[in-house]
Amino acid sequence: MDRRIVRLRWFATAALAMAMGWLSVASNAADPYPAKTVRVVVPFPAGGSTDLVARNLAQRLSELWGQPVVIENRAGVAGVAGSDYVAKATADGYTLLVASLSTHAVAPSLYGKLPYDPVRDFAHLTELVAIPNAVSVHPSIPARSVKELVALAKAHPGQLNYASNGTGTSNHLATELFKTRAGISLFHVPYKGSAPAMIDLLGGHISMMLDVVMTSQPHIKTGKIRGIATTGLARSAVLPEVPTIAESGYPAFEAIVWLGFFGPAGLPRELAAKLNADAVSVLNSPKMKAVLNEQGWDVIANSQAQFTIRIRDEIVKWRKVVQDSGAKAD
């Protein structure tokens, strides 16, 4: 066969293969997002409050998108390990994160060297939900209001103790913020989690505790502990009869736990906007709101810009609390 014909056939075959390759790339690029399974990393163990919110979100996003949205629990170093994993993931929208106040506002001050920057290394998609703490005392403590509690603490400095989920946790730092604003001295007793701390408060071994309303509310309703305040700017829907610290003589006091939706930095602008819009849509659906409100969560569902401002402000706020309290990571 003529060499020229052989050569022409070779070039024709190569050109066809190249064209098919470009068509494949173009087809993939044109595929609507998501075209495959999306992973949402939760940097805490399964079964916790962050995990439950993330699973509700994942289920409804999966229904909206028609693609599986799966939760991957990557616990370790109080949420730092899983958050760092997402910070370093490919920014294609298929690895996302549901994280919290502790990983993105407190951790920068609590750890000497954090492996990620909570502002620079993430796309801030939306603040999902927030929940206040309840200030609860054992019934043996003769205080029925914030004013009475502060007066009691000032009369007996350092004699009242308070429980927390551990040094540097959100309820530890919330109590430290309250101490500073009220000008009182309380003795800190850290526990390994909320459950053992609550057991000792119920048993009268602990004077008081700040813990999220979903944990405190059942015991307040039965009278096993006394709820004297909550820590949001507005009263909690699950404890509407309990006033806030802000309305009890300490204006603008706020110490809430919030959860946020993140992607790695570098997500294409259009994709980040879609993720924000879709998350906000499912969060504001009546069914989703009802589920979250029943658990004590307030739906936030804000814009990317608003969420970034929240994170920046919270980093500054909690840095001062960490420095003033001398808190260090366990």
The CATH C-level name of the largest domain is: Alpha Beta
Radius of gyration: 25 Å
- The N- and C-terminal alpha carbons lie at a distance of 79 Å
* Overall spatial form: globular
Tell me the CATH architecture of the largest domain: 3-Layer(aba) Sandwich
Average of per-residue pLDDT values: 91
| Total of helices | 11
Query: According to CATH, what is the topology of the largest domain?
Result: D-Maltodextrin-Binding Protein, domain 2
Main sheet summary: 10 strands, mixed
Strand content: 15-25%
DSSP strand count: 10
CATH superfamily caption of the largest domain: Bordetella uptake gene, domain 1
Uncertain stretches of 5 or more adjacent residues: 3-8, 10-29
Q: How many independent structural domains?
A: 2
The H-and-E topology, N to C, reads as HEHEHEHEHEHEHEHEEHHEH
Structural class, from secondary structure content?
Answer: alpha/beta
| Helical coverage, percent range | 40-55%
Task: Briefly say what this structure is.
The protein has about 325 residues and is of the alpha/beta class. Helix content is about 45%, strand content about 20%.
